[in-house]
Amino acid sequence: MAIASQDYEVHALTIDYGSKHSRELESASKLAEHFKAASHRTIKIDLGIIGGSSLTDEKIILDTGKKLEEIGKEIPSSYVPARNMTFLSLAMGLVEVVGAEKIFIGANAVDYSGYPDCRPEFFEAFQKTAELGTKAGVEGKPVIIESPLLRLTKAQIISKGMELKVPYELTWTCYSGGDKACGKCEACLLRLEGFREVGINDPIRYKD
Ligand SMILES: [Zn+2]
Question: How many angstroms is it from 182 CA to the middle of ligand 1?
């Protein structure tokens, strides 16, 4: 399993897509700095103009009342229409400019398979698209899409991060806005469960 920070010079890309939980942008910058990325760009797009997601649309309320076992049964309101497709397309553009070999994306399908754009089939299909739709692809050097966390459980992700000395205090997962994590949204529940399974404390601050 290849991990971006181990064997590669990393050009970090953050997409500020107009989410309500923009606190994650601050974390992205701190992490890019911590891991000494060769460059870090933030692209601003407003997916709120399309709406249709509790993460971007003021009219749609984020679900914070679910139990852990209910997560993954259906596509949740936090699904952002075509988000990973949009992110990968933007990353593909950056790859062509900096001459990168790979795109690393942190999608995860195992604990939670409710997002259609977090499935292995989606990434395989996008790989084909990249081969056909980019200069690098046509010239026979298509960029490889790596999703190293795709088949890991949340607990395995936490363990892998411990091994790689990820400063978890700088990370952000919560979908609710605010300076402290809510501890109740799906993202928080899965994160907390991962830490619980591994048996270590989550160093970020929670509301309760
Ligand atoms: Zn939360």
Answer: 4
For residue 40, the surrounding DSSP H or E stretch is strand 39-44
Q: Assess contact for 131 and 90: CB atoms under 8 A.
A: no
What domains does the chain contain, in order, with CATH numbers?
4-198 (3.40.50.620)
Amino acid at 78: S
> How far is it, in rounded angstroms, from Cα 151 to Cα 142?
23
Distance 130 CA to ligand 1 centre (A): 34
> How many whole angstroms from 16 Cα to the centroid of ligand 1?
18
Q: 190 CA distance to ligand 1 centroid (A)?
A: 10
Q: What's the pTM?
A: 0.89
- pLDDT (average), residues 169-189: 91
Residue 25 Cα, ligand 1 centroid: separation in angstroms? 15
pLDDT in tens, 116-172: 888 899 999 999 999 998 988 889 888 999 999 999 999 999 999 999 999 999 999
Q: What is the pLDDT of residues 10-41, one digit of tens each?
A: 999 999 998 877 889 999 999 999 999 999 99
- Cα–Cα distance measured from residue 16 to residue 23, given in angstroms and rounded to the nearest whole number: 10
Tell me what pLDDT residue 101 has: 93
Q: How far is the CA of 160 from the centre of ligand 1 (A)?
A: 22
| C-alpha 63 – ligand 1 centre gap (Å) | 10
